[in-house]
Every structure is written in structure tokens, then in C-alpha cells.
Description:
The chain is α/β, with parallel strands linked by helices.
Amino acid sequence: MIVLENIEKIYGSGESATTVLYGINLKIEEGEFVAIMGPSGSGKSTLLNILGTLDIPSSGKYLFFDTEIGRLAQDQRALFRRYILGFIFQGYNLLKKTTSLENVEMPLIYQGLDAKTSKKMAYEALKKVGLEDRIFYEPGQLSGGQQQRVAIARAMVAHPKILIADEPTGNLDTKRSHEIMELIRTFNQEGITVIMVTHEEDIAAYASRTIYLRDGMIEKEVTRAI
């Protein structure tokens, strides 16, 4: 599904140039659950941003089913994010003073769906994460775990092929973290490819494969049966 070939990322130029990723080669199969780990400054967030097309590599190729993402125009990459990817962030990134239903509707509105259809799909997504009784609550009225559930519903409402999760449990306690991971694992078992950055080994254990980065390079990979 995804092939990265000799991906490098350099910020700045000349004497101030800083290389963050060095020759990353990585393949991710459709339906796989991959965790990315590494110490601060290892390049894991940069790699995730490249996979999510929020950043582009300085050199190398990013292939998605043989389409080279780096050759797409900016508006084409935006469509790729809109129709192929779903995003979950550590900070939830929900709109304030906006209900759970309205937050989850946003990707569908961007896709041009009519109001009736988008509201129905948003409700079903919230029901799937156990928040059908919180559809009219605003973020400030929800716990951290509930906010992350809304964020997951928003990420999944448009049925993406890939879920990009950046420290999805970073702001949650242990119990809520594992509840969120069980949800993400359920979506993976339904066929969604999951790519997740985490700094916690017990969270990475939900993945079938963990990529360990150090100093901008892949240090090792660990595959596990789940």
C-alpha cells in the first residue's frame, strides 16, 4: 500500500541545514497496524507528517499504490488527505463552542455531502465510539477521553483507508488510554490501515509492527502477533 524509498528530510539550507531523516526505506501493507517509536528528536513526527502528506520529503519517493505522492500538486495532496486519510491528534483538535455532532460532520461537509446525510453519518460514527448520548455536548463539557472519542469519530466518519494517529493517548490516563486503543484496534480489524506515533511501549504493543527510529534512521523493527 505504502512504499517509502530513500526518504530524506532536510530543514534549512547551507550551514544552517539540519537533516532530520536519513534514507528511510519502509513498506506498509494494506490493513497493517504500524507503530513508530523513538526518543525526542529521532524524526518520528517528521516521518508521520510525511506519511500524512502534511510535509514533503527533501528527496526520495513516497508511493501509494504506485502513485508517487511527491509528484502531486498541493491541491491533489489536499484531496488525498480528504478522501484517503483520517487524523487523530494528541490535543484532540476539536472546534470549541461546537457540538460533538458538528465536529464529526466537518470532514463530510468538506467532501460536499448534504446536511441530512452528513448528520446521519456523524451520528452513526459517534454511536460507534459510544457517545450517542453526547452528540450536543461541546468539547468543554466532555472529559479528555470523551473528546478523544469524538476526534476518533471525526477521523473515521468518512471511511478513510488510512488512520494517522499522533500520540493518540498522550493526554489520557492509563484506563482511558487502553479504551481508546481498543477502539483504534477495532477499526484496524475492520480493514483500516493504522500508522501511529507513540512513546509508550504498552500502547505500541497494540500494533502488529513497531518501527524504532533513532537519529533520523530506522534502528530496528519488531513484529508481533496480535
